[in-house]
From TrEMBL:
SUPFAM superfamilies: NAD(P)-binding Rossmann-fold domains. Residues 16-182 form the NAD-dependent epimerase/dehydratase domain. It comes from human gut metagenome. Coiled coil: none annotated. Pfam families: Epimerase. This is LPS biosynthesis protein.
Length: 296
């Protein structure tokens, strides 16, 4: 695989796919600069797509739905109000603008758009951060920990399932459509997550007393993408274990033992399926790539 740096979008004369992730999974502090940068990114993507006829994959997260109503699970055609006082308000506005602008600009062009909206992304050794990171670190180092209490449920998804959805959006999913992307049985409150962690690691997690915490995002319904044969592979318990093992201070290779419900075999099967799908796409489009070694 060859990576090339371009100084401007006008230098790109040929492309099959344009993938734009914007601020998906990134924390924002309502800095207006993110809106300026977001508009510039969308303009560049639209310019490339119109010039090349490439398919565009837009990746946003559940903040796009706005301030969720209690106990609601949002499907692709539903929206809540954007709360101007919420730290995620600007992020939600930018995500809505990204989607509407691209669909509008590319409406009469040869390009098509597939839109993904993810839950809260967790990923070991990634740049994604979450309110659970201190909890993972405490458990990995055998310390007692306190989990913030949330009244509502949120959808979580592991990074592997997001990448899988992007691959499907490039090739299999219906054009000019929107799909929610969540993990396998991963709609949960932080209180439920604390219960799962206690069940696995013993009584090291307590629930924070006082006011409830509100996270950025909401619970989403990802049945639509599953019906299109893009089903998530990583469940909540497994993604929590991977994130905790990643923070353990050990020189040992990250492994999930065979003795624990044969999860190592499951992860190997997930990785193999993902690699085979990537290989199929590369062969179809005559794309050369280099496959490096992994840890599992």
């Amino acid at each position: 695989m060859i990576f090339v740096d371009y100084n401007s979008a006008s230098e790109i004369s040929s492309a099959d796919y344009v993938i734009t992730t914007g601020i998906c999974g990134e924390h924002t502090d309502n800095n207006p600069q993110i809106m300026i940068d977001g508009i510039a990114e969308i303009n560049a993507c639209a310019k490339i797509a119109k010039a090349t006829g490439a398919r565009v994959v837009v990746v946003n997260d559940s903040r796009i739905y706005g301030k969720a109503k209690p106990h609601r699970v949002y499907s692709e055609n539903e929206y809540a109000e954007l709360d101007a006082t919420s730290p995620s308000s600007l992020a939600g506005q930018l995500m809505r603008m990204r989607e509407t602008t691209l669909h509008s600009v590319l409406k009469n062009s040869e390009s098509t758009v597939a839109t993904l909206r993810t839950g809260i992304i967790l990923g070991a050794s990634s740049n994604f951060t979450s309110v659970l990171d201190p909890v993972f670190d405490d458990i990995a180092n055998r310390r007692d920990t306190v989990v913030p209490a949330t009244r509502d449920r949120y959808t979580f998804v592991y990074i592997n399932d997001v990448l899988k959805a992007i691959v499907f959006a490039m090739t299999n999913l219906e054009e000019n459509a929107v799909y929610n992307v969540g993990g396998k049985n991963c709609n949960a409150s932080l209180i439920m997550i604390a219960a799962v962690l206690n069940d696995i690691y013993g009584s090291r997690c307590t629930i924070e007393s006082g006011d409830f915490t509100e996270l950025d995002g909401c619970a989403i319904n990802s049945n639509k993408i599953s019906v299109n044969e893009c089903t998530p592979d990583i469940d909540l318990e497994t993604m929590l274990k991977i994130c905790i093992m990643d923070k353990m201070k050990s020189e040992k290779v990250l492994r999930i033992p065979h003795s624990h419900e044969r999860r190592l075999d499951s992860i190997h099967e997930i990785q193999l399926a993902f690699l085979l799908e990537t290989d199929r796409i590369c062969r179809k489009h005559n794309i050369k790539y280099f496959l490096g070694g992994g840890t599992l």
